[in-house]
C-alpha cells in the first residue's frame, strides 16, 4: 500500500532529476558554444592583454571579478579541449616512438607505436594501440609486437596482407625483392574495422533501448547473437521471429522472418526496403503493427 502511494512521488522525483541533468548538460553545451565562438575570443584576448600583473590586477589596481576569472579559466580549458578534439578528429591515427625496457629487445628496444582514435556518439572512445618492431637488427621490415585491439579485429589476417614479413632464405631466393609492406594501409584497415564495429553496436544498443522503453512497440526484443552487431535476432509481440544479417559497413544483407504459417515475406520486404542501412532499421520497425506484423497500405 505504501509503495503504491509513494510511486507517484518517486516518479516525480525521477522526472525532476532528469530535467536537472538535461538542463545541466544544456548549460555546458551553451557555455562551450559561447566560449569557442569567434566573436568571443577577441573580447577575451583584449581583456587578458589589459591585465598587467599575474594576480589579475591592472595598472589602475582593479581586480578581476570572480565571474570574469571563471570565464577566463573556462575559455582557456575550452580552447585546449577544442584543439585536442580537432587534432584527434583530423589525425585518426598517430605514430610515435616507444622504448622497450627489455634488455634483450632488438634495436635497443626502439619500437613504433600507433595510436588509433575512434569517435562514436559524440565522444571519443579509449584509444587503441599497435606496437611494431623490426624483424631483425639488420632489416627495416616491421612486424606486430603487441596491440590492444579486441579479438574481433582480424589483425593477423590484415598483417599478413599489408605487412608481410620476409622469409629467411638463401641463394637465388635471397636476391629476390622482399614483399612490400604497407603500414599506412594496415592502420587504415584496422581503424575501419574498429569504427564500423562501434558504429554497428551503438545503433543496435539504441534499438534495444528504444524497444525496452516502449510498451507499444511491435518488437518485443532484439538480441545481438554474435556480440558484433552482425547477427540480430528479432522477436515480435505477435509471435513472429526474425534474423537479420548485417554487413561490416552497416548494410542489411539478408532478412528472414518466420511465423506460424511459415515465411513472412511481406514483413521481410518492409525491413529490406529503402536504403537497407542499419541506421534506418528503427524507423521501419516502428511502422510494424504488433497484431498484424505490418500496417496496411
Radius of gyration: 28 Å
Sheet with the most strands, sense and barrel status: 5 strands, antiparallel
Briefly note the structural class of the backbone.
alpha+beta
Strand segment count = 11
Strands of the widest sheet, in order across it, are 7-8-9-10-11
Residue stretches low in confidence (pLDDT < 50, at least 5 long) are 1-5, 52-63, 290-297
In which range does the helix fraction lie? 40-55%
Average the pLDDT over all residues and give the rounded result. Answer: 79
- Topology as a string of helices (H) and strands (E): HHHEEEEEEHHEEEEEHH
Question: What does it look like?
Answer:
It is a single chain. It contains seven helices and eleven strands. The chain has 297 residues and is α+β, with helices and mostly antiparallel strands. The strands form three sheets. The chain has a five-stranded antiparallel sheet with strand order 7-8-9-10-11. A four-stranded antiparallel sheet has the order 1-2-5-6. Helix 4 runs antiparallel to helix 5. The longest helix is centred in the first third of the chain and has 34 residues, at 2-35.
